[in-house]
């Protein structure tokens, strides 16, 4: 069947048949469909949507574009976590070693930044020498030695998602529940896990702006996972302001190490511990959520999580000395600060505008071929409710290219309002979806 006929059908708002969806997925992973035809289909899906059956069929076709891994011969239950993406969202690098220290296998396949949100792989690649592309035998070796591994999807796992992922990032086709669901769940189902915890971000800085949309996405993911033998649960977490204080790849790695040392921001630590505890319970390493929380907090306080992180970095070719000397991580030497124009209370930085500004500085991509600059980013110094005086530093930009700075500053103008009274500060964890 012709690509143009399938495109026209979805453009006009009709549901696609399993054969048509299979043709689209096959075309995206070969030269049969051109990149502009694939991009046109992605945009048609964003604008016209997909029903439940179409989304399930898209996920199935993407899983079947490769092979499904199997860890059943290893000790421990394979469990993973996935976030729908946010600004400063770095919990994967914290919760994976904590869960592994509690006896859960974590074969984590992650993605790169999408739109204004950061990507776990880009963070990991800011570690000197770190390899995210491992084949399956290498992946198994690290998993056996360390208890967790963090890699990009292999060529054998859901190759269709890899073909679509980069195009979505640069064609404004990220914000779609069917595309997000199929992308996430095809990788997770194929990576051979038995349990999955979803962190669905909700708020002005998330792809899902409202709690209603975030809940709908969570239910879509849960339904797809459970239907494919992967026990799936979800938390909705707030993403109106950046998570933590660091935004940008190497900066966020530093903050993760700080948290694993028992330091770092409360919001990053608390969400990481809760997600890790759910993984531990789902993996059968604890009989209740309270017991799982105790185990995770012990792994954090004892340094076991930090040691697991060090071992994973070394096993994947990275420089383990970064754990003790974070100056070994890349850094952008130029700085620009944004100061408060008046006294009062910070309402908090708008997450999406901070994310877009750091992408513009080089922390993400505007085109598929763009190179990420690992040291650039922002340090958020004013959190919601903080009292500030006129002239206090609200945010510090780390950058390399002078010509990119004006655009970033324009995006950030007025993005952290100062109020006369302290603003209401809501919880990070909004609700559990089951």
Describe the structure in brief:
This protein is α/β, with parallel strands linked by helices.
Can you describe what's shown?
The mean pLDDT is 94. The protein is globular. Helix 2 packs across helix 4, helix 4 (52-63) packs parallel to helix 9 and helix 15 (351-363) runs antiparallel to helix 16. The protein contains 16 helices and 13 strands. It has helices spanning 3-11, 18-28, 35-48, 52-63, 92-101, 120-124, 136-146, 159-170, 177-190, 211-227, 249-260, 266-282, 289-301, 304-315, 351-363, 405-412; strands at 79-83, 106-109, 148-151, 195-202, 231-238, 246-247, 334-339, 344-346, 377-380, 387-388, 393-399, 418-419, 429-433. Strands 1-4-5-13 form a four-stranded mixed beta sheet, with helices on both faces. The chain has a four-stranded antiparallel beta sheet with strand order 6-9-11-7, with helices on both faces. With 434 residues, it is an alpha/beta fold.
């Amino acid at each position: 069947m012709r690509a143009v006929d399938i495109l026209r059908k979805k453009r006009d708002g009709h549901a696609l048949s399993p054969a048509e969806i299979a043709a689209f997925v096959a075309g995206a992973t070969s030269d049969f469909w051109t990149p502009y035809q694939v991009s046109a289909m992605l945009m048609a899906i964003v604008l016209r949507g997909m029903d439940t059956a179409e989304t399930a069929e898209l996920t199935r076709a993407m899983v079947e574009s490769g092979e499904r891994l199997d860890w059943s011969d290893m000790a421990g239950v394979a469990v993973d976590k996935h976030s729908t993406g946010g600004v400063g969202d770095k919990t994967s690098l914290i919760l994976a070693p904590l869960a592994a220290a509690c006896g859960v296998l974590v074969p984590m396949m992650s993605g790169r930044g999408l739109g204004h949100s950061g990507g776990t792989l880009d963070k990991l690649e800011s570690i000197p020498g770190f390899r995210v592309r491992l084949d399956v035998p290498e992946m198994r070796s690290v998993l056996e030695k360390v208890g967790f591994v963090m890699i990009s999807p292999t060529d054998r796992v859901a190759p269709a998602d890899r073909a679509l992922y980069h195009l979505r990032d640069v064609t404004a086709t990220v914000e779609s529940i069917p595309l997000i669901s199929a992308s996430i769940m095809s990788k997770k189902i194929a990576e051979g896990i038995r349990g999955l915890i979803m962190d669905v971000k909700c708020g002005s800085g998330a792809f899902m702006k409202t709690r209603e949309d975030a809940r709908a996405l969570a239910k879509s993911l849960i339904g797809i996972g459970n239907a494919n033998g992967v026990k799936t649960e979800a938390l909705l977490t707030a993403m109106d302001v950046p998570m933590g204080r660091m935004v940008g790849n190497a900066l966020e790695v530093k903050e993760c190490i700080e948290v694993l040392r028992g330091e770092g921001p409360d919001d990053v630590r608390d969400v990481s511990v809760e997600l890790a505890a759910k993984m531990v319970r789902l993996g059968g390493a604890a009989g209740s959520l309270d017991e799982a929380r105790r185990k995770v907090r012990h792994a954090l306080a004892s340094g076991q999580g930090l040691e697991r992180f060090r071992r994973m970095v070394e096993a994947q070719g990275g420089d383990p000395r970064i754990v003790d000397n974070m100056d070994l991580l890349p850094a952008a030497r130029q700085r620009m600060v944004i100061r408060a124009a008046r006294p009062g209370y910070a309402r908090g930085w708008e997450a999406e505008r901070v994310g877009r500004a750091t992408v513009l500085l080089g922390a993400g991509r505007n085109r598929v071929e763009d190179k990420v600059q690992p040291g650039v980013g922002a340090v958020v110094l004013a959190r919601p409710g903080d009292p500030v005086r006129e002239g206090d530093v609200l945010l510090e930009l780390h950058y390399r290219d002078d010509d990119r700075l004006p655009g970033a500053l324009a995006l950030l103008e007025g993005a952290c309002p100062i109020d006369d009274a302290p603003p209401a500060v809501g919880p990070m964890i909004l609700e559990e979806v089951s």
